[in-house]
Specification:
Elements: E1 2-4, E2 7-9, H1 21-27, E3 30-31, E4 57-58, H2 61-78, E5 81-83, E6 95-99, H3 109-126, E7 129-134, E8 150-151, H4 152-160, H5 171-185, E9 190-194, H6 207-217, E10 220-224, E11 231-232, E12 237-238, E13 242-249, E14 256-263, E15 269-277, E16 283-289, H7 292-295, E17 300-303, E18 312-314, E19 322-328, H8 344-350, E20 354-358, H9 361-365, E21 371-375, H10 383-393, E22 397-401, H11 404-408, E23 429-436, E24 456-460, E25 473-476, E26 482-489, E27 492-497, H12 512-524, E28 536-543, E29 549-550, E30 559-560, E31 576-579, E32 589-592, H13 594-597, E33 612-615, E34 623-624, H14 626-647, H15 654-666, E35 683-688, H16 693-713, E36 718-724, E37 736-740, H17 750-761, E38 765-769, H18 783-790, E39 799-801, E40 828-830, E41 843-846, H19 850-854, H20 870-890, H21 900-908
Parallel strand pairs: 6-7, 6-9, 9-10, 10-33, 19-20, 19-21, 21-22, 22-27, 35-36, 35-37, 37-38, 38-41
Antiparallel strand pairs: 1-2, 2-5, 3-4, 5-34, 7-8, 11-13, 12-13, 13-16, 14-15, 14-17, 17-18, 23-24, 25-26, 26-27, 28-29, 28-30, 28-31, 31-32, 39-40
């Protein structure tokens, strides 16, 4: 290759023809004279005429210059000039591409693949063979290995199909694979290491040995992100009315923000917490207030704007609805008697928010239990008390209510000793005047609740005064007498209400305050632990590298229940849902989260000396100038032909020929771009300019390829697509706008909103493409939020998935699916028909990256692979595009063919 400033020639040997241009000048100097028309007299009168000598005239200098320019442009075009080529890493031998494809690479995965593809372009121009090493273990639990040597074009296809994995890389195993390959290769090689910049080894440094080994093989280029933190979301800590969140991050020199979203199973966001990360900090904390009703609907937490298993936490029953056991001190049949039963008010207060269970102490403890409530039931010494004590010390919460039985027979499972004395009547004290509740003290789980004057206490059991009583009191009466006391036992706690659970001693059970106090106590419990011990839990759904739930990966295996909480994800145990699979009850499902099993992210060591460092992101788009130069040479040759014919007198008006030639030369100022002045003279598609040059180029190439396909297969005649900016350009000239949604897309200004609403109101169609659905999940982080910003003030009708009988599926081709570069997502159209607009949906929303599937490059090739269906999927994408164009041009015409059933019936006969 030969580089001249920003231009590189892939076939520089062809430039050797340029010195031959002077020879061509000499050969082209002479041209025969133009024939002269003359009326001849009789033939005999010409017999004596002498034959004059004819001398050739010289070719005009400007025509010679025209021909030489055409020849020079042809030579330069065949030499394959490339504008803005990616600089290669140098070195000798094959190119080894090493990719960290673990969880830390998901956030900027498209940029990483772009960096690798740019290096493959250089290798293809240099004629190098290439090979690939992925550092994360594959899904089938094999060790990393290096592929066979292959052409760069073939390796590019493999890169397109790659996805990050939801577990950490194994650089030690990758180093072993490199050593084995190098021992067989026996020669130098160049290496590109697309690193995630994170040290994943629990101890020591695994990055440096691998990078050093790569550097020893030859030239090494390390590409990694700069200025982008790697963040990890561990499981939260459940508190009374909130979730305590923690974000682990690599440090940044300036403060930054993070946001955690609480989402339901169907993707709805119920709450959002903003977290400020200080400069240089590696962790940040915040609270996510969640009423219990909302918390029970939350099944996952996500870091906003980050796609990856590291940014997702699945919340199982440990964070949601808790199983609560109820036991009364009297007869079981009397416990639920309306208004007076010991469990009547407890049942109604807890039933909406907890799973209630009944039975004896051994029966309840035989199953997983968060809270056990004893209503005026003493616990006798013996096996029952020993089992209950062991359960509390293991993390259980025991809530007790006083009453006559407990006052007479106090036991050892009390948070504080009860007071004895002659003022107690069987351990109970009566007042002539009821007592109201005092405000809840600071540090109490009931802090923030407002005691109402209607709640009064007429009788209670008294606690023995002591120095530690104040610190073990969560609620008091107006005179300072403890109402709710507590104490810890091992990992659990005992909480006691010094009144009965019914309205016999107080009006507390009749109030809403009673419900709120019980809900907060249940929320404080440790939750359940799932299945016992080593009982295996089978994978039900697992997360992929982009944090999306799906069917279990092929290598996923059951995991013992006792190891779920702290297991490090791996190919055998990827993050996701594990359970017995025997019922839909959430108590049988446990979440294995990446953030619970891996260490906090820390930056990897510096690369070895002599390594070329390259920042990931913003890879410039190379432009092949060859086709443009060849096209210009052809236009010059056409102009030369017209001028030559005029000079020879073949054409009647040489002046017009020259003018036509000059007009053809004027076209060389640029390719046929859609201008405002001539946009109304031809039908053309349009795309919204995003400001991202790479995305805009894909949009242009995609609509150009679609227009060519439609022109060759239908009666439509589409001109070259046009870039538009809503609010600046006239949208009424275009039937269809393609709008690729980028993660940083800004909301349109008022003029743009007005123009877009008018466009849709007058029959135009906007195709929003988020490029992140189906097989392309995670390719455009933040696209969903950006789509909401873009459409916030647009008049978008209610949407629904495309029905099977929609005109989009039969406007020209009969289609079942509407794929693009990606497939498997949902395409949305207007739910209701608007006859004022011919029942045409003004908005179509999907995420299949249609422009990439339609795109063609300067040589007419498709530069982007269709995933996973290949060429068959691309054909379907073109057919969908054709249907879309027909839908935009003809409206609901296909839906109005009332005679189609009769025609089909006749054809069937």
């Amino acid at each position: 290759m030969l580089s001249l400033g920003p231009i590189t020639f892939a076939a520089p040997w062809l430039l050797l023809a340029l010195p031959a241009l002077p020879v061509l000048w000499w050969l082209l100097r002479v041209t025969p004279p133009a024939p002269k028309r003359q009326e001849f007299p009789a033939l005999r009168l010409l017999q004596e005429l002498p034959a004059p000598e004819e001398t050739p005239a010289r070719t005009p200098w400007w025509l010679l210059a025209l021909r030489l320019a055409a020849a020079a442009l042809m030579i330069l075009g065949l030499a394959r000039p490339i504008w803005g080529p990616t600089a290669g890493g140098g070195g000798q031998g094959p190119l080894l591409v090493v990719v960290d494809d673990g969880w830390a690479a998901a956030a900027d995965w498209p940029d990483r693949m772009a960096a690798a593809e740019a290096e493959l372009d250089v290798a293809a121009r240099e004629g190098r063979r290439t090979t690939l090493l992925l550092t994360a273990p594959p899904a089938l639990a094999e060790t990393p290995r290096i592929t066979a040597l292959m052409p760069a074009e073939e390796l590019r296809g493999r890169l397109v199909a790659l996805r990050p994995k939801p577990w950490a890389p194994d650089r030690a195993a990758a180093l072993a694979a490199l050593a084995g390959w190098w021992s067989k290769h026996q020669g130098s090689f160049a290496a590109l290491y697309v690193a995630d910049g994170i040290e994943h080894a629990a101890e020591g440094d695994a990055f440096t040995p691998l990078a050093t080994a790569l550097a020893e093989g030859g030239a090494l280029v390390v590409a990694r992100s700069e200025g982008r933190p790697t963040r990890l979301l561990p499981p939260p800590r459940a508190e009374a009315d909130q979730l305590a969140l923690t974000v682990l991050t690599t440090p940044l020199p300036v403060p930054s923000q993070a946001a955690v979203l609480a989402r339901t199973g169907d993707g709805r966001t119920l709450a959002r917490a903003e977290i400020t990360v200080l400069a240089g900090a590696t962790r940040a904390e915040a609270a996510l207030p969640l009423p219990l009703e909302i918390r029970n609907q939350v099944v996952r937490l996500d870091l906003d704007g980050i796609a990856g298993a590291n940014a997702t936490v699945l919340l199982d029953e440990r964070f949601r609805r808790r199983p609560v056991g109820l036991i009364a001190g009297g007869e079981a049949t009397a416990a639920d008697v309306p208004l007076i039963g010991e469990l009547f008010y407890l049942d109604r207060a807890l039933a909406p928010h907890a799973e209630l269970r009944r039975g004896s102490v051994p029966e309840l403890l035989a199953r997983q239990l968060s809270v056990l409530v004893l209503a005026d039931r003493p616990v006798a010494a013996g096996r029952e008390r020993d089992e209950l004590t062991a359960w509390i010390e293991a993390g259980g919460t025991l809530v007790r209510f006083a009453g006559p039985r407990l006052a007479e027979n106090p036991d050892g499972l009390l948070p504080v000793p009860l007071r004895a004395g002659e003022r107690q009547l069987g351990g109970a004290l009566s007042w002539d005047r009821p007592q109201a509740l005092a405000p809840f003290p600071e540090g109490s789980p009931f802090q923030g609740l407002e005691p109402t004057p209607e709640v009064t206490v007429e009788r209670q059991v008294l606690a023995e005064p002591s120095a530690r009583l104040s610190g073990h009191t969560w609620a008091r009466l107006a005179d300072g007498t403890p109402l709710v006391t507590w104490d810890t036992r091992g990992a659990g706690r005992i909480v006691m209400f010094h009144v009965t659970a019914n309205a016999e001693w107080s009006s507390l059970p009749l109030s809403g305050l009673f419900v709120d106090m019980l809900r907060r106590l249940v929320a404080l419990s440790a939750g359940i632990g799932g299945a016992d011990g080593e009982a295996p839990l089978a994978p039900m759904e697992t997360l992929d590298g982009f944090g999306q739930l799906g069917p279990p990966s092929p290598g996923a295996q059951p995991i013992p229940a006792a190891r779920v909480e702290n297991e490090a994800p791996s190919p055998r145990h990827p993050p996701g849902w594990y359970g017995s699979g025997t019922s839909g009850d959430g108590a049988h499902r446990r979440a294995l989260n990446l953030g619970a099993g891996v260490q906090a992210p820390r930056l990897a060591a510096a690369a070895p000396a002599g390594t070329t460092m390259r920042a990931i992101g913003g890879v410039p788009v190379e432009r092949d100038l060859g086709p443009w130069l060849l096209a210009a040479a052809m236009l010059l040759l056409v102009a030369d032909l017209l001028v030559s014919l005029g000079l020879r007198g073949v054409l009647a008006r040489p002046g017009r020929v020259v003018a036509g030639a000059l007009l053809a030369l004027g076209l060389l100022a640029g390719p046929a771009q859609a201008q405002e002045g001539d946009a109304a003279l031809a039908t053309r598609l349009a795309y919204v300019v995003t400001g991202d040059s790479q995305v805009d180029e894909i949009s242009r190439a995609g609509l150009l390829g679609l227009s060519d396909f439609v022109n060759r297969r239908t009666a439509a005649a589409l001109a070259e697509p046009a870039p538009i900016v809503p609010g600046r350009d006239d949208l009424s000239l275009y039937p269809l706008l393609y709008w690729p949604v980028t993660g940083d897309a800004a909301q349109p200004d008022p003029a743009g909103v007005a123009a877009l609403n008018g466009f849709m109101r007058n029959g135009g169609i906007i195709l929003f493409d988020t490029r992140d659905e189906g097989s392309g999940v995670g390719f455009t982080p933040g696209a969903a939020a950006a789509l909401r910003r873009l459409t916030r003030y647009l008049t978008v009708p209610p949407l629904a998935p495309v029905p099977e009988d929609h005109v989009l599926k039969r406007a020209f081709y009969l289609l079942q699916d509407l794929p693009g570069r990606f497939a498997g997502g949902t395409v949305w159209v207007a739910r209701d028909q608007d006859r004022a607009n011919d029942s045409v949906s003004p908005v179509i929303i999907g995420g299949h990256d249609w422009a990439s599937a339609w795109a063609i490059d300067a040589r007419g090739n498709n530069p982007y692979a269709a995933i996973p269906g290949g060429n068959r999927q691309r054909i379907l994408a073109y057919r969908f595009g054709t249907n879309l164009v027909m839908y935009a041009l003809t409206g609901n015409y296909k839906g109005d063919q009332v005679h189609v059933p009769a025609i089909l019936e006749r054809l069937g006969n």
